[in-house]
Amino acid sequence: MSEPALRIAVAGARGRMGRALIDEIVTAPDLRLAAAGVRPGDPEAGMPVEGVPGLSYTDAPEALFERADVVVDFTLPAASRRHLELAAAQRTAIVIGTTGWQADDEARIAESARHAPVLVAANFSLGVNLLIHLAARAARALGEEFAVEILDLHHGMKRDAPSGTALALGRALAAARGEDFETLARFARTGETGPRESREIGFGVLRGGDVAGEHTVFFLGTGERLELAHRAHDRRIFARGALSAARWLARNRPPGRYAMADVLGLRDG
Prior knowledge:
- This protein is α/β, with parallel strands linked by helices and 269 residues long.
- The protein has 9 helices and 12 strands.
- The chain has 2 domains: 6-120 and 235-264, 3-Layer(aba) Sandwich (Rossmann fold), CATH 3.40.50.720; 126-232, Dihydrodipicolinate Reductase, domain 2, CATH 3.30.360.10.
- The longest helix is centred in the middle third of the chain and has 17 residues, at 126-142.
- The model has no long low-confidence stretch (mean pLDDT 94).
């Protein structure tokens, strides 16, 4: 006898990622779309979800957690903060791909993770998570003799800069070298900047067109340069990765803070 389909609720169901998630869920035999959330006051609230008979969009975030085994959230930080509270209250697993967090949001995530399984990732692509893993190993191996710079290229509609993925790369590189990311991060250079600080982690941001996402990490040494890059061509890779995380998180994981490295078995020993 087969197991019942995993019930997934999608927050931000009418956004780009929300639509991609729904498209993947309705074609997956082991998944069922249990709820599709929109922002409060959205004119689509109460209207049928295309391709899902009997289901309507809801602007009540509580409904997502009442109906689902796992909530998948690609919204904005203000909405995700409320979703974290509801996940903790309902003891419901939540997968979050929201970016643009503030520094004090880490405490909110940690508090929710005391009561529910919480997985927050800046990027759900398998390739990107391998890039983060490999870049950290390269940073340890090459040491401070190689300057580190990160280039972030996205479509013109992206709201935050640098991207969450670029920041995740920077934090992983700093941690690999035993350094404090906030001290080393350099987000802008203009005017008379003087020589580059040898230990800083520089960021470059490009926006335009319909680029799904590109990230390149440069290790710049004397007489040589190493580049590690990932280029996304289709937004569906992020939806598939998020649903893989949802499946993993739903397997009786205890409350706690998880990452894609856990899902993919990439934790360094």
